[in-house]
Design brief:
Elements: H1 6-19, H2 24-38, H3 44-55, H4 61-101, H5 108-119, H6 121-139, H7 143-159, H8 164-182, H9 194-200, H10 206-219, H11 229-239, H12 245-257, H13 265-297, H14 301-306, H15 308-327, H16 329-334, H17 339-354, H18 359-375
Helix pairs in contact: 1-2, 1-4, 2-4, 3-4, 4-12, 4-13, 5-12, 5-17, 5-18, 6-15, 6-17, 7-8, 7-15, 8-9, 8-15, 10-13, 12-13, 17-18
Length: 382
């Protein structure tokens, strides 16, 4: 295996960070094309093992895969440089767009674009869950329990808000119990109480609360970035009143149409809470667990993948997370206030679920519909 110079890591990971529209499948494809096919820096088996290992970790898996590949090539320096290069282009873009959408008096066309694209977000959540569910079901050790975890996760996302993480952890712990009853062998991995404590959040507002919300986003997103949407919505809109429902929908839409992980959404929440400083703090805290997990645990990935307790935990938490992604569509849809937004949502659902259009294209089309509707006199959300 050749060792590329750090300048190559900076250039190539930054390029993927700039063109990585479309979420984790696109990020994985671009990293594989770079590291395996075009440059031969990693063997195909190595790359596939890296995908499997990062999918066992909480947090944005494609971001962790980018950090891991850079670590594999150039150690700690490569991981830090490659990860930052992958994250920063989308982060800069989403903060700039967030500032535009959250301005005190944005022009009507901006508000219309946000109301249109935000209206489609609930359909994007259902699409994300539908994309993840088949592979998860194929891996399930017990299909009836898989369905039960899925339904519990959906119900929790629709009703519990801040306590969703507790439900995900409980599903994982329950599955460990079920599987240990069937077999006493295998390694043991404890289920620690810190995720439950994190779910409660900080009691007061301010930067401490923002850091706590960002930590939950970065450390507890089992099953993909969308699982943290209902948690963020509760904190940003209901608990701390940093944003309105409409502004939060705009933030989620921006997280989808910009390159990089949907976790970037937390930067818009941070901007709403405390300006540029809040956006940067939220991003730093949210992505810190990904870097930490790779830098501390990458050498132990083989043992992690072989650990039965870890796999059992994800057998429970994984389907619950997928259910939570689907369940998030309910509060997102209920946040819509205008009839024309419901029509845009219906159109987005048809585009994503029936005609199989891409997420970015659908959100851009929904934003364009919002601009057109506003120009024709459609009322803007209050």
């Amino acid at each position: 295996m050749s060792r590329p110079p750090l300048t190559a890591v900076l250039r190539e990971w930054g390029r993927i960070g700039c063109i990585g529209f479309g979420g984790p499948p696109v990020h994985i494809a671009l990293l594989r094309e770079l590291c395996v096919v075009r440059r031969g820096w990693l063997e195909d088996r190595e790359f596939e093992d890296a995908i499997a290992a990062t999918n066992l970790l909480p947090g944005p898996a494609s971001t962790q895969l980018a950090i891991y590949c850079a670590w594999r090539l150039r150690g700690v320096a490569g991981a830090l440089l490659g990860g930052a290069s992958f994250i920063l282009p989308g982060l800069v873009l989403i903060i700039a767009l967030g500032a535009l959408f959250l301005a005190a008096s944005p022009p009507d066309w901006v508000l219309g674009a946000g109301a249109g694209s935000g209206a489609a977000v609930a359909a994007v959540a259902v699409h994300a869950a539908a994309t993840l569910a088949p592979a998860s079901l194929r891996r399930a050790t017990h299909r009836r329990r898989w369905v039960a975890y899925l339904l519990v996760g959906a119900l929790a996302a629709a009703t519990l808000g801040a306590w969703l993480v507790v439900v995900l952890v409980a599903c994982g712990a329950l599955e460990i119990t079920f599987q240990r009853r069937r077999s006493s062998g295998g390694g043991a991995a404890g289920v620690h109480p810190w995720p439950v404590l994190a779910a409660a959040g900080a009691a007061s507002g301010g930067l401490l609360a923002l850091a706590w919300v960002a930590f939950k986003v970065g450390a507890l997103s089992y099953g993909g970035g969308f699982v943290i949407i209902p948690l963020m919505q509760h904190d940003a809109v209901d608990a701390y009143h940093w944003m309105t429902d409409g502004q939060f929908l705009n933030a989620v839409a921006l997280g989808q149409v910009t390159p990089g992980p949907v976790v970037h959404t937390v930067a818009v929440v941070g901007y709403a809470a405390a300006g540029i400083g809040g956006a940067l703090l939220a991003a730093l805290v949210a992505f810190a667990p990904s870097f930490s997990l790779i830098l501390i645990g990458a050498r132990r990935f083989d043992r992690l993948r072989a650990n039965r307790a870890v796999r059992a935990f994800l057998d429970g938490a994984g389907p619950a997370a997928i259910g939570a992604i689907a369940g998030a569509s309910i509060p997102l849809a209920l946040a819509l206030t205008e009839t024309w937004q419901v029509c845009v949502l219906a159109g987005a659902a048809v585009a994503l679920l029936l005609t199989r259009r891409g997420v970015v294209l659908t959100l851009v089309a929904a934003g364009a519909a919002g601009i057109l509707g506003t120009a024709l006199g459609a009322p803007l959300p209050s």
